[in-house]
Amino acid sequence: MMNSVLVLSPMLLVALLLTLLVVFALLWPLRGRNVNAGHSVRQLSAQVYRDRLDELNADLSTGRLEAETYAQLKLELDRGVLADTTADARIPVAHHASVKPLAFVLLVSVPVLTLALYLGYFLNSQVAPDLKNQALLAPSIDAILAGKEPEAAAKDASLQDFMRALQRRVQAEPNNADAWMTLGLGFLQAKDYEPAKVALARAAELRPEDIQVVMTYVQATIMTQNGAMDPVARGMLGRILREQPDHQGALLMLGMGTLRAGEREQALAVLTQLQMLRAAEVATNNGQRDSEADQRIERLILEAQQGPQVAAAGIQVEVDLDPELARQLPAEAALFIFARTPSGPPMPVAVLKRPIAQFPLRVTLTNADSLQPTRLLSDQKELVLQAKISMTGNATPAADDWQAVPVPVTEANTGMVRLRITKTR
């Protein structure tokens, strides 16, 4: 108990000092002053008479007043003095009302309200549970960042609870790369790709030598940009390959990124290098190989060799929307078409985004729309296609999204897949 008091004493002393300063600032104007009881009417009238007479004499001597006007004004002045001296009244002076009760109320209420705020009595009902949740999950977050299992008390917490607690942690520890990395992975799991990219970018900035962090950031950029690669991610991959020219993950992503950017010659060179590295690896591992990965690389090489016509082969999709509903859409609305696996991770295999246009809209999903180089659209034997209209143009699920009924598709299906969007989810 004594230790906790000692730990809190600096904060309590600061709070006490601030409270005293506030009380002083409120009470100082109310401290009261000695009030002059006032002067008699006779005394004030005599002073005014003398000042006014001096002015008249000065005006007469300088010629600003004629003698006749001077005599008339002096007569009126004498009459005024005579009227004021008929009664020795006193000028009422306004006295301040007693401030002692108000000062006492402020002296008591300010510290009491300060203590009540400190103890959380005036917290919003929605804020208090969030603060309690952060305190409850703090030990589990410490364990997760240390690579350990979270505490049993946190197992019932939702992903959103952990995300809020992690956001509070990175605010308190902005240079904690592990916290930023965990926060980014949480956003990826929640399919909130833009915040994931921001969090992982911060983690990569804090720990540029950590290849796992950098590769995760590159994957996030690919997910947020429909398979494209921005200059920052490309620069990170280049740095990894300068230090480790045989890093297969970096080669695969660089090959995919350059291929999606239309740089087929560079993509072919990178993917061919990757294929040769894997062949040499097979030779040293007594013929053991990952045939699925090798086939994926071969298809990418074929696409780089033959050009866009190979990438054009995909799933044809037609999306329809009632014209009456189409007229209700805001200008910033956007259409998203998702391809997911029936069983597996919730992250889509491929995503296609289109601005709102005339319906029905026909598009083709291809490998170019794949979010990960390790999960190409053409590699999936079964898929579920779904379309939605986001009112904000954001891929993150929202309550006001308009969605189509999901349609399952197999690799044997070569016809048009038709999706009709309705207003209700």
Describe this structure in words.
The protein has 425 residues and is of the alpha+beta class. It folds into three domains: 44 residues; 163 residues, Serine Threonine Protein Phosphatase 5, Tetratricopeptide repeat, CATH 1.25.40; 110 residues, Immunoglobulin-like (Sandwich). Helices cover 55% and strands 11% of the residues. It contains 15 helices and eight strands. Strands 1, 2, 3, 4, 5, 6, 7 and 8 form an eight-stranded mixed sheet that branches. Helix 9 runs parallel beside helix 11, helix 10 packs antiparallel against helix 11 and helix 11 packs parallel to helix 13. The longest helix has 26 residues. It is elongated. The two termini are 54 Å apart. The relative contact order is 0.06. The N terminus is likely disordered.
Distance between the termini: 54 Å
Give start-end ranges of low-pLDDT stretches: 1-8, 308-312
**Fourth CATH level, the homologous superfamily of the largest domain:** Tetratricopeptide repeat domain
Q: What's the total helix number?
A: 15
The number of distinct β-strands equals: 8
Content of β-strand: 5-15%
Overall shape? elongated
Q: What is the N-to-C order of secondary-structure elements (H for helix, E for strand)?
A: HHHHHHHHHHHHHHEHEEEEEEE
